[in-house]
Design a protein that fits this description.
By secondary structure, the protein is α/β, with parallel strands linked by helices. It is built from 20 helices and eight strands. Strand 6 and strand 7 form a beta hairpin.
Length: 446
């Protein structure tokens, strides 16, 4: 008998924690809110919004208590080798009209397998919109998820089935070491829709779809005004700090997300010409909107600069400390490699860039760590004499050093980039006073 996709797999169980660790390292901050909303008394379908190709499924993998089974578009399953890899990763194909009308009939088997996954007690994850969108905007939903939910609830009889709305927010889509916020909402019970489902299935599917739509909107950063999308994003960046201060909120990824939501849903009249003038003025100086609004004080910038300079000087003076840092960089140099710039040139679709960047860094990191551990373990001569007479034990030390460096690379890199940006900000204040006063005037008028 063929092994079901949701069945336990030892190799998958071995690799899954490593993938989850790599996912968390990919972000400066990974926040999960509402984990207690995941049902414990029945089967459930996780329904996230979808704005990146691979990154939402990876986020779901990180908070799901059991290995979830995913659905992905069928065209990526065409190559046999890739199909085997995706199946190993617990991903099944789903066929769309663009795959051909003749292919849609194959969804019957997929839906049956989805029902088996849920009946087996494993969570099923379907992207709510069915396609990704690199804007903070909820797209219309298809009906496939709700057909699966209705059929499964019939099979479960009196046992509950839930759809769990999940907002996933990226404060940056392409830049490395951004922040990710997962916002898990209250589960939607499928049972209340079943009376209608038995008598009028299309109506019940629409009711479930509307319920999920209304449940997702408050969980994500959703900009309804598409005509002024860019201007609203600018307001989310430049007004965030002011609004947090007014409400006495600390500068955390979760609070910044809440303020972006509030700004995006504010229907008060806006002077869009002023917003565009601010965007143009900042662009002329190549000054980021977030940096302008969230800049450090001059004192904090100077103190941070002196602290970094002092730390570098001490490392250069003390041989032992210098060797420690050289060893750390030798074990994990990935933080220094701007792989996102290479991916940006090679990958045309911006919705795939973060996923490709994650894949490149993840697999290169694993390969490099294995190679460097072997190389350090086999090293001799002056290199080993300078380190310590531990022989091959240095190879074992290289692995946890690489893991620790990977976990700290996000916060450290973010700090250093912020420091560089703030130094430039204050230099602009010094040498481009007229342009900065113009920006201040526009900003104060918003």
């Amino acid at each position: 008998m063929a092994k079901a996709i949701q069945d336990n797999d030892r190799l998958y169980n071995l690799l899954s924690p490593l993938v989850q660790f790599g996912t968390r390292c990919h972000y400066n901050s990974f926040v999960v809110h509402g984990r207690e909303n995941l049902p414990t008394d029945g089967a459930y379908i996780i329904a996230p919004c979808h704005q990146q190709a691979l990154m939402e499924p990876l986020a779901v993998l990180c908070f799901s208590p059991k290995p979830p089974v995913f659905l992905a578009r069928a065209d990526i399953f065409r190559k046999p080798t890739l199909r085997k890899i995706l199946t190993f990763l617990k991903i099944m194909p789903v066929y769309r009209i663009r795959d051909g009308h003749g292919e849609l009939g194959r969804n019957r088997e997929i839906f049956d397998r989805c029902r088996d996954v849920l009946l087996n007690g494993s969570p099923l994850c379907l992207m709510a919109e069915g396609r990704h969108n690199n804007r903070h905007h909820l797209l219309p939903m298809g009906k496939g998820m709700f057909r699966i939910a209705g059929e499964t609830q019939l099979a479960l009889a009196g046992h509950p089935l839930y759809i769990v709305p999940t907002g996933i927010d990226f404060d940056e889509y392409e830049k490395p070491y951004s922040n990710l916020v997962v916002n898990i909402g209250h589960p939607i019970a499928v049972q209340p829709f079943m009376d209608t489902y038995r008598t009028d299935e299309p109506v019940a599917l629409n009711q479930m779809r509307d319920a999920l739509h209304h449940a997702l909107l408050p969980l994500m950063h959703d900009i309804r005004d598409e005509a002024h999308y860019d201007e609203i994003m600018t307001l989310c960046n430049v007004l965030n700090r002011k609004m947090r201060h007014r409400q006495g909120l600390k500068n955390t990824p979760w609070n910044r997300f809440l303020m972006r939501q509030k700004i995006s849903t504010d229907n008060s009249p806006r002077n869009w010409d002023q917003v565009n003038a601010l965007r143009s003025a900042l662009s002329r100086l190549h000054l980021g909107e977030k940096l302008f609004a969230e800049h450090w004080s001059l004192a904090a910038t100077v103190l941070a600069t002196l602290a970094v300079a002092a730390f570098v000087a001490v490392c250069l003076i003390l041989p032992a400390l210098r060797l420690i840092w050289l060893f750390i960089l030798l074990c994990y140099p990935m933080a220094l490699l701007p792989t996102h710039l290479v991916v940006k040139r090679k990958v045309a679709d911006p919705q795939f860039r973060s996923s490709f960047n994650f894949g490149v860094r993840f697999f290169v990191s694993i390969a490099y760590t294995i190679v460097i551990a072997i190389a350090v373990a086999c090293a001799d001569g002056m290199w080993m004499n300078r380190l310590a007479p531990l022989g091959a034990w240095w190879g074992l030390l290289a692995v946890p050093t690489a893991l620790l460096a990977a976990r700290l690379s996000g916060p450290v890199t973010t700090f250093l980039l912020s420091l560089a940006g703030n130094c430039r900000y204050w230099l602009l204040r010094l040498f481009r006073r007229s342009a900065m006063r113009q920006i201040d005037n526009i900003y104060n008028s918003l």
